[in-house]
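Researcher: Here's the sequence for the chain we discussed earlier.
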Amino acid sequence: MPEPDLLTADEAAKLLRIGRRTFDGHVARGDIAYIAVGLGLQRVRKRFDPEDIARFRERQRRVEGPPQVMPSRRSAKKVPGVEIIDFKALLEERRAERRARRQKGSQRP
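Model: Thanks. This is the structure I predict for it:
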């Protein structure tokens, strides 16, 4: 029987006031440490130390400050020129070059 101070996944999720699936996601990512109990090889029975849960809760603590004023993205900087490529004309030019090379090769005696 597990130690009385260890929590099951349901108890730990309830303590954190989050859903079980969310809790399991944190465990899978390694955010929350667990203790494997039992000798089962197919499925590990996980128990959670309340200190690890408290540590996780402390790491999740956030403080939001006032929004930072970002400088305007509009500026007088000039954007480099844009080159427009006519791909059909480029293709026709390459085909014409190939035809010319083939005709030169076939004209040699």
